[in-house]
Amino acid sequence: MALKVELKPHEKIIVGSCVITNTDQRAKFLIEGDRLPVLREKDILTPATADTPSKLIYLAVQLMYISDYPQDQHAIYFDLMRDLLLVIPSAAPMVAEINNHILCGDYYKALKESKKLIAYEKQLLDNARGPDVRAGLSTAA
After folding, report:
1. Distance CA 90, CA 78 (A)
2. Closest alpha carbon to 107 in 71, 53, 56, 83
3. What residues does 20 pair with on adjacent strands?
4. Which of 2, 24, 27, 39 has the fewest other C-beta atoms within 10 Å?
5. In the structure, what pLDDT confidence band is assigned to residue 135 with cuts at 50, 70 and 90?
6. Distance of CA 112 to the CA centre of its chain
7. Is the distance from CB of 73 to CB of 67 less than 8 angstroms?
8. How far apart are CA 121 and CA 83, in angstroms?
């Protein structure tokens, strides 16, 4: 079954190991292939944008997902995961879910679970800052 993709002007997408950048007009196309990694620009993290522990984990999983040799990223991933669990032990159920997907070789599902980890980390940080700080940040923006 083909994946239907519509790109906005100048939007990027990773297909396999290639980055495709759209021109100045909307484009629609079909991607066919078995287990071909596809990531839209909104789902791509770079080392510069991976600025929290959970985003670094997402980046490691992303590299596994698009790599021909995902096992090359496993050691980095598991080091990052151990570090995260030391500071956020309540993330253990999410970590277990991500680990299961990685060990089964389903990197796309691991990537989706990693997004939940990013959201959870953000929620914890927002709660730690308290309502006064959050209100001040939203009015300053």
Report:
1. 17
2. 71
3. 13
4. 24
5. low
6. 7
7. yes
8. 14
CB atoms within 10 A of CB 67: 14
Residue type, 136: G
Structure tokens of 66? 């698009």
| Pick from 118, 139, 108, 111: nearest CA to 50 | 118
Residue 2 is classified by DSSP as P
pLDDT of residue 31: 87
Question: Model confidence over 93-124: pLDDT tens digits?
Answer: 999 999 999 999 999 999 999 999 999 999 99
Of 41, 49, 44, 35, nearest to 6 (Cα)?
Answer: 41
Calculate ∠ Cα 29-109-87, nearest 5°: 130
| pLDDT band at residue 136 using 50, 70 and 90 as cut-offs | low
> Among all chains, which residue has been given the structure tokens 């698009």?
66
Q: Is 107 in contact with 61 (CB distance < 8 Å)? A: yes
Length of the chain: 141
In whole angstroms, give the CA distance from residue 57 to residue 8. Answer: 28
- Contact indicator for 58, 111 with CB cutoff of 8 Å: yes
Which secondary-structure segment (H or E) carries 77? helix 74-87
